[in-house]
Amino acid sequence: MDNTSRKYMLMIAACVGCIMILHHCGKKSKVNRKNRRTWARKWLQKRDEGRGLSSMLNNELLNDDPQAYRNFLRMSNTQFEYILQQIEKSISKQDTNMRQCVTARTK
Question: How much is the pTM?
Fold first, then answer.
Protein backbone atom coordinates (compact mmCIF):
# COMPACT_ATOMS: atom_id res chain seq x y z
CA MET A 1 0.00 0.00 0.00
CA ASP A 2 1.27 3.41 -0.80
CA ASN A 3 1.29 6.35 1.56
CA THR A 4 -1.85 8.09 0.19
CA SER A 5 -4.04 5.01 0.40
CA ARG A 6 -2.80 4.38 3.92
CA LYS A 7 -3.73 7.96 4.92
CA TYR A 8 -7.10 7.51 3.22
CA MET A 9 -7.79 4.27 5.18
CA LEU A 10 -6.74 5.93 8.47
CA MET A 11 -9.05 8.87 7.73
CA ILE A 12 -11.97 6.53 7.03
CA ALA A 13 -11.26 4.56 10.21
CA ALA A 14 -11.12 7.80 12.21
CA CYS A 15 -14.45 8.95 10.73
CA VAL A 16 -16.10 5.62 11.50
CA GLY A 17 -14.73 5.78 15.05
CA CYS A 18 -16.09 9.32 15.51
CA ILE A 19 -19.50 8.30 14.18
CA MET A 20 -19.62 5.33 16.57
CA ILE A 21 -18.66 7.54 19.54
CA LEU A 22 -21.26 10.17 18.63
CA HIS A 23 -23.92 7.51 18.16
CA HIS A 24 -23.11 5.93 21.52
CA CYS A 25 -23.10 9.30 23.34
CA GLY A 26 -26.36 10.34 21.70
CA LYS A 27 -28.30 7.43 23.15
CA LYS A 28 -30.26 8.26 26.26
CA SER A 29 -29.52 6.10 29.19
CA LYS A 30 -32.48 4.01 30.26
CA VAL A 31 -33.64 4.49 33.81
CA ASN A 32 -34.54 1.24 35.53
CA ARG A 33 -38.11 1.51 36.74
CA LYS A 34 -40.17 -0.86 38.75
CA ASN A 35 -43.04 -2.48 36.96
CA ARG A 36 -46.17 -0.57 37.75
CA ARG A 37 -49.02 -2.38 39.36
CA THR A 38 -52.67 -1.70 38.85
CA TRP A 39 -54.48 0.04 41.65
CA ALA A 40 -57.00 -2.69 42.10
CA ARG A 41 -56.26 -6.35 42.46
CA LYS A 42 -57.66 -8.69 39.82
CA TRP A 43 -60.11 -10.28 42.19
CA LEU A 44 -61.44 -6.84 43.13
CA GLN A 45 -61.89 -5.90 39.48
CA LYS A 46 -64.33 -8.75 39.09
CA ARG A 47 -66.96 -6.69 40.88
CA ASP A 48 -67.11 -4.51 37.75
CA GLU A 49 -68.04 -7.62 35.78
CA GLY A 50 -70.98 -8.25 38.08
CA ARG A 51 -69.38 -11.11 40.00
CA GLY A 52 -68.94 -9.39 43.35
CA LEU A 53 -70.85 -9.83 46.58
CA SER A 54 -72.83 -6.64 46.06
CA SER A 55 -74.15 -7.69 42.66
CA MET A 56 -74.89 -11.16 43.98
CA LEU A 57 -76.93 -9.66 46.81
CA ASN A 58 -78.78 -7.06 44.78
CA ASN A 59 -79.35 -9.01 41.59
CA GLU A 60 -79.71 -12.64 42.57
CA LEU A 61 -80.50 -13.04 46.24
CA LEU A 62 -82.96 -10.15 46.45
CA ASN A 63 -84.97 -11.43 43.48
CA ASP A 64 -84.67 -15.17 44.07
CA ASP A 65 -84.88 -15.46 47.86
CA PRO A 66 -85.92 -12.28 49.71
CA GLN A 67 -85.92 -14.10 53.06
CA ALA A 68 -82.27 -15.15 52.62
CA TYR A 69 -81.47 -11.54 51.60
CA ARG A 70 -83.07 -10.29 54.80
CA ASN A 71 -81.25 -12.92 56.86
CA PHE A 72 -77.90 -12.01 55.29
CA LEU A 73 -78.24 -8.24 55.85
CA ARG A 74 -80.30 -8.55 59.03
CA MET A 75 -82.68 -5.94 57.63
CA SER A 76 -85.28 -5.68 54.91
CA ASN A 77 -84.59 -4.16 51.52
CA THR A 78 -86.65 -1.06 52.37
CA GLN A 79 -84.60 -0.51 55.54
CA PHE A 80 -81.39 -0.94 53.56
CA GLU A 81 -82.55 1.53 50.90
CA TYR A 82 -83.52 4.06 53.58
CA ILE A 83 -80.13 3.83 55.33
CA LEU A 84 -78.31 3.97 52.00
CA GLN A 85 -80.25 7.09 51.04
CA GLN A 86 -79.27 8.75 54.32
CA ILE A 87 -75.53 8.07 54.09
CA GLU A 88 -75.00 7.98 50.32
CA LYS A 89 -73.83 11.59 50.00
CA SER A 90 -71.24 11.25 52.74
CA ILE A 91 -69.66 8.01 51.49
CA SER A 92 -69.79 8.64 47.72
CA LYS A 93 -66.76 9.85 45.81
CA GLN A 94 -66.22 11.11 42.29
CA ASP A 95 -64.89 9.16 39.32
CA THR A 96 -61.38 10.06 38.17
CA ASN A 97 -59.55 9.64 34.89
CA MET A 98 -57.67 6.70 36.38
CA ARG A 99 -60.59 4.63 37.61
CA GLN A 100 -64.24 4.66 38.51
CA CYS A 101 -65.20 5.07 42.12
CA VAL A 102 -66.88 2.36 44.15
CA THR A 103 -70.56 3.17 44.42
CA ALA A 104 -72.22 3.72 47.76
CA ARG A 105 -74.40 0.66 47.23
CA THR A 106 -71.32 -1.51 46.68
CA LYS A 107 -69.60 -0.12 49.77
Answer: 0.50
